[in-house]
Amino acid sequence: MTTDAHTADQPYLTAKGFCITSGLWLVVATFMGLLGATELIAPDLTENIGWLVFGRIRPIHVNLVLFGFVTPGLLGAAFYYFPRLLRTRIYSDKLGVVTVLLWNLTLVAAVVSLAAGHTQGREYAEMIWPIDMLVVAVFVLVFINLIMTVRQRREPVLYVSVWYVCAAVVLTGATFSLGNVIWQPTSGALVGIPDAILLWFYGHNVFGLLLTPLAAGVAYYVIPRACQSPLYSHTLSLLGFWSLIVVYTHIGTHHLLQVPVPTWLKVISIVDSVAMVIPVMAFLINIWYTARGRLGAIHADIGAKFVFTGTIMYFFVSIQGSMMALPQVQRVTHFNNWVVAHAHVGVLGFAGMIALGGLYYVLPRIAGKPLYSRFLADFQYWMVLIGVVGFTSVLTIAGLVQGHAWLNGETVYRVIPQIHVYYVYRAALGLMIFISAVLGLYNILRTLYFNPGEAR
Amino acid sequence: MYFPYFASYILIGFVLSLIVFLWALKNGQFREQQRARFLPLEDEPDRAPAPTTRISRLETWALGLLAVAGLLASAAILVYALING
Ligand code: HEM
Fold first, then answer.
1. Which domain covers residue A376, as residue numbers?
2. A343-392 pLDDT, tens per residue?
3. Pocket lined around ligand 1, Cβ cut-off 6 Å
């Protein structure tokens, strides 16, 4: 094991930029979530303040979580491990810094425009055309930097994390453009059922072809390193990668099982949702076998601890997801808080946890000093964990109450008071996550700057 | 008529994936699989982890219990659904 002259002493500016971006927008995103949760308890709270109504706060929260917190966090780690795995330097840190700046500009523009009421009104595709174009542009810039790094590599074999990240960036660039119908700037939509199909093809790909592969890439790097043991099987990891590409791309229509889309499409989406067990278990078996007997080492490294917990959440969210794609199950779970619970296990519990793990793993290595406060990071770990488990419990219960009420033909206004108490618990849990995000940002900034720790 | 557009997208995606797969095959990406397992480790090793303390052992137990509780809850829902479904 040697330090490679080509990878040593890199400034890691791009990785640093993405890590700070992620920590910063996590604060804003969780604040928006908390505000939205509070409005669900007290709908009159922001009455007559147009830019703060729930309908505007929700898309801001969702888009910031996806593109402000999770994606940059996972990319921050990727920009650290790409040069290491490929035994070269990152192609251009200048380009990387420009990308990070443009990324942040895009996010500011998204918040301002959505708050001002400029929306295309399609879930996960709310942002208006000029901002869509900025998103495509930043993905293209990230791709150029990564693929050129791959081209100048000195390691001939591409490790599985490299495959995952390259695929995530290319596929998201393509499906984002399609899903946002960028060739129709004014509406950003097709008409009728084809629009729903296209939107959910894209919508599901945000989780399946952006967050999932980026998170898998981080886990495949951090777990072997933290355990100091080789990956259980690289062949299995490649099998998981290719089966994910084949299976995940077909399942978007499971969001539309109760919509008059063609039946053959529904059947494909259901069959492949169940078949998702193949890439999911290929990934999990590989990671868990790599960590077998080395849980102590994982526990000792806060980054690896976040990542490993994320893999356990991945198990739960995926098994749950495969069940939710069955029409009999969805008769109860659709159109209520059950799905919101699932969404939080996936995006915060799985991808978010791994993003934080990647971040805490690479930060001390970029800074060349230990993490400013292990205690604060551990505190954030527990707050996020309690938050996600709590969200899952209360929102699942609320969802079951709602689901059975809809099935029995109950009216909405009689059900809302029944679930009010769960909304209160949910906001309280959200407050915990928000506070820990603020402390997390402080920890990130102190680790990178004004860090009194000894140089490593 | 939207199917031709969707079908062409699927076709383009399929062909591109196939090209990448064949490149990987020809380029020997599936060959040195044993060495590939060690790639993340070909760097300076991480510092030795701190020794476990009583509190961290307790924490590990708490996390383990949480995961088992999750599994039990999932199993209970499944059994309930099968019995009442
Ligand atoms: C095997 C893997 C998975 C399957 C089969 C699956 C399945 C599903 C299904 C069927 C729905 C629609 C529920 C409904 O509307 O009734 C759904 C929603 C959702 N899933 Fe998953 N899921 C999986 C993994 C994940 C992961 C890993 C994430 C996050 C990274 C995720 C995030 C979401 C989100 C955010 C929604 C809510 C979409 C909305 O706004 O309606 N899922 N999932």
1. 13-449
2. 999 999 999 999 999 999 999 999 999 999 999 999 999 999 999 999 99
3. A 123, 207, 211-212, 254-255, 273, 276, 280, 317-318, 321-322, 324-325, 330, 333-334, 339, 342-343, 346-347, 350-351
A385 touches chain B (CB under 8 A): yes
Let me know if residue A455 belongs to a domain.
Answer: no
A272: left (phi over 0), alpha (psi -120 to 50) or beta: alpha
User: How much distance in Å is there from the Cα of A141 to the middle of ligand 1?
Assistant: 28
Per-residue pLDDT band for A139 (boundaries 50, 70, 90) equals very high
Instruction: State ipTM.
Output: 0.90
- Name the domain count of chain A: 1
Q: B31 contacts in A (CB within 8 Å)?
A: 157
For residue B33, list chain A residues with Cβ-Cβ distance below 8 A: 233-235
Alpha carbon nearest to ligand 1 atom 10, residue: A325
pLDDT reading at A51 higher than 80: yes
pLDDT tens for each residue of A252-264: 999 999 999 999 9
Q: Please give the residue of chain B at the shortest CA–CA distance from A5.
A: B43
User: Using an 8 Å Cβ cutoff, are A288 and A305 in contact?
Assistant: no
DSSP string, A232-287: S-HHHHHHHHHHHHHHHTT-GGGGGTTS---HHHHHHHHHHHHHTHHHHHHHHHHH
Task: Tell me, yes or no, whether A8 lies in a domain.
Answer: no
Residue of A92, A309, A153 lying closest to A222 (CA atoms) = A309
- The answer to whether the CB of A221 falls within 8 A of the CB of A301 is no
pLDDT at B52: 64
Overall average pLDDT of the A261-271 stretch: 95
Grouping H, G, I as helix, E, B as strand and the rest as coil, residue A199 is helix
For residue A3, is it within any domain? Answer: no
Contacts 24+ apart (CB under 8 A), A397-400: A397/A422, A398/A336, A398/A337, A398/A422, A398/A423, A399/A333, A399/A336, A399/A337, A399/A338, A399/A339, A399/A340, A399/A341, A400/A332, A400/A338
CATH code for the domain of A139: 1.20.210.10
Domain membership of residue A91 (yes or no) is: yes
Q: What is the pLDDT of residues A107-119, one digit of tens each?
A: 999 999 999 999 9
Instruction: Give the pLDDT mean for B22-40.
Output: 96
